[in-house]
Amino acid sequence: MGAVGAGALGAALGVRTTAAWALPSPSRPECTTGQRPAFLGTYGNGIITCSYDTTTGALTRQSSFPAVTDPSFLAVSPNGKVLYALDNSGRQGAVRAFAIGAGGALAALGPARSTGGANVTHLSVHPTGRYLLSANYGAGSVAAHTISADGSVGARTALVQHTGSGPDPGRQEGPHAHQILTDPRGAHVFAVDLGTDTVYTYRLDPANGALRPVSEVRSVPGAGPRHMVFHPTAPYAYVANELNSTVTVYALNAATGALTRGESLPTVPAGAAAVVRNYPAEVVISADGRFLYLSNRGHESVARFSVTGGGAGLRLLDTVPSGGSWPRHIGLAPSGTLLFAANQYGRTVAAFTVNQDSGALTPSGPPFATSSLGCVLPV
User: Fold this and answer.
1) Whole-number Å distance between alpha carbons of 303 and 38
2) pTM score, whole prediction
3) For residue range 63-87, what is the model confidence (pLDDT) as tens digits?
């Protein structure tokens, strides 16, 4: 599957931009003004629960659950009542569930479940709420677990090992699965592997939770694809490439799950790459699909892109300082009016207000000082 011009992606696959592309939004507690919970996944201090002001984004620490090791990524159930977390306390990674109580207080829900591979780095909940998906960076494998009726994590139903390598001997000596997620229709599961320069497509068997390989697409050699996000209403996806500081547009054949690679753009302004080595990390998109945001580690910024051509293209508009060092993760509040940046080395969370017309980010107050961070999850 070779590269094609982004403007030709839609025509090449016969895709149409349509609201029917996405499933209905999951049922979540209604977002109201005032205070809402936000969860911080840390390195060394477990999960920290905060509340955030829905107007300013100002964070206030509420409680913590320290008895989980390096929960660097978190996800919430479709109904918003259960929090899922990574746990790297053993030789193999694990996934855990927590009931979300009043004020965001957490209570362990069932035992930890092994992901079958070392250094689990990402997890996501299938839109049906029946399966939990995880990616083992160290092992280069992906897994699936059942989710029980009470939200606890059940038996592992799949473990798929990636193979291969890339041209960077220091980072691509073997497979390194960095993310696993589902398209907005819930039809296919995608695994982004930094080590093999590949995005893999799977189909999740709803009867037994098996992951069936469907297809794969290669990135630019040495790009190091890390994280991906789908357009909410059009069959396109955008991949942040950690090793060559670019973001790539892919068109998705919704029927088959096949991706076709399009154009790649730098994630920092012209000339910035010559000053500092940059490593893109997280990528998110606005609910209306008009703006894409990406965190830059090294450049220490959040980039804002305009989504063009009905989803087939991107244009870098600007970058803003991330409010700390090494923004490993960014997250949009459900309202879409706030964006949070989790700065791993800076040990801060910065809040930004989002202009709904232009997508522009404006810092909102001083960054919140906390622990070394893997992610921030406003709910």
Assistant:
1) 22
2) 0.93
3) 999 999 999 999 999 999 999 999 9
